[in-house]
Structure formats: structure tokens, C-alpha cells
Amino acid sequence: MLEKQEAAVFAKEQASLQRLQKKRDASVFSIVNARKKHRKVSSKGFVFNESPGTPVVEEKPLDAASTGAECNIENVQLSPENGNVDLMSYPELVKLCKEMDAAGLHKFISDNRKNLAAVREEIPLALRAAPNAASLVLDSLEGFYCTEVSSQDIKKDANLLGLRRTSIMLLECLSDFLTNLGSVSNVISEDIKDRAKAVAEEWKPRLDALDIDASNGNSLEAHAFLQLLASF
């Protein structure tokens, strides 16, 4: 019986790891393509002919001012291809991200859990308003491991399980945000990578100490660890 449980847990972990690896590979591929497109487009200007809605590409050098404006985060978050913040169903997300309020972000997601799918869809866009989206998501991981709760009680603690699910979702949203961004290096600096590495090193021994039962709380811990590696 014990061997079957171990085999089942191992199979689940391998499957989850493979899915995350594929997602990470796809993200890297998308980022590389985005950079190539950005380099091509940055050397051209866009004008419109007399026929509405029909864009025509015209060779036109961009000056430093226009380039800076195009790269400004506010222009990016309001651009048609990324959606208008004013049209978001949950503009509060933008405010929370802009203020780097990780605790408030957790509370907002918890309060709107009935509409989680809609909230989840808007978080990557809202992260564009954050001064440092990667740092905000790392801040949101605080409290993932509560020392005051025993391993057995964790599976019964609805609040802690909810916090962990939200943390995983924010890590996933960060991956989506980075996939749609032109330059990852501007978001994930070496300092942020060091912080993420420190979190991973802190979590790893806890995973090694997990019991065979990988359901509920334990599976969330493994999922979060793998997603942390994939996101950073």
C-alpha cells in the first residue's frame, strides 16, 4: 500500500514538473520572439492611409523622445493590444499593484473568490502598474509557511490553504505577465533573482520533510515550489 502511494506521488510530481517545464520553455520561446518583433518594429513608424482601419508601414526613424514614450509603462498598460485599464472589471487590482500592496492583493482576491476566473484574467495586466511586479509577487509569498500551524492542521486550515492557492495563482500570473513583456531583465533583476533563490532554498527542506500523503496542503507546497522555479 505504501509503495503504491509513493509511486502515485512520484508520478504526480513528475507530471507537474513536466507541465511546468513545457510552460517555461514556451515562455522563453515567446519572449525571444517578442524581442525579435520589437527590434523590427522599433525601426519603423506607423501611418494610416485614407481607408480607416488599414495600417501602412512606412520606414521612419524614431527619435529618443518617441521611443521613450512607447516604452513608458503607462502607455503599455493603456495600449489597445493590452487592453484599456479603464475598461477593466476590477480597477482596484491596478491600484493595489501600483501601491505594491501584497497583503491588500491577497485580501482582494480572497474577497472576490467567487469571480476568481475573471480576477485571474486581469492580474497580469494590473501587474504592469506595479513599480516592481516580481518583487510584489515575492512579497505575496510571505506567510506561505506558517510556523504556528502544525503539518496536520494545515490540511484543515482553510485560510492558509486559500493563501497558498492565491500565492500560486500570483506566481502563474507573473509568468503570464513576463511572457507578454518585451524585456524580462527589466523586471527580474539580479537582486530579485537572489530573493527568489533564497525563498526556494528555504522551502526545499520543508518539501523533503513532507509525509507520503501529497493531497491538499502538501500538493500545494510542491506546486508552489515548482511554480516559483518556473517563474523566476
What features would you describe in this structure?
By secondary structure, the protein is mainly alpha-helical. The chain has one domain. Helices cover 65% and strands 4% of the residues. It is built from 11 helices and 2 strands, in the order H-E-E-H-H-H-H-H-H-H-H-H-H. It has helices spanning 2-42, 64-71, 73-78, 92-98, 102-111, 116-126, 133-139, 151-154, 158-179, 190-208, 217-231; strands at residues 44-48, 55-59. The protein has a two-stranded antiparallel ribbon. A hairpin with a 6-residue loop joins strand 1 (44-48) and strand 2 (55-59). Helix 1 (2-42) packs parallel to helix 11, helix 4 (92-98) runs antiparallel to helix 5 and helix 6 (116-126) crosses helix 9 (158-179). The chain is globular and about 55 Å long. It starts with a helix and ends with a helix. Residues 38-83 have low confidence and may be disordered. Pfam families: Frigida. Keywords: Developmental protein, Differentiation, Flowering. Belongs to the Frigida family.
> Would you list the SSEs in sequence order as H and E?
HEEHHHHHHHHHH
Number of helix segments? 11
- Residues in helices, as a percent range: 55-70%
Strand sequence of the main sheet, in spatial order? Answer: 1-2
Low-confidence spans? 38-83
Report on the biggest sheet. 2 strands, antiparallel
Structural class: mainly alpha
The Cα radius of gyration reads 21 Å
Please give the number of β-strands.
2
Q: Return the domain count.
A: 1
| Portion in strands | under 5%
Arithmetic mean of pLDDT: 73
Shape: globular
Oligomerization state: single chain
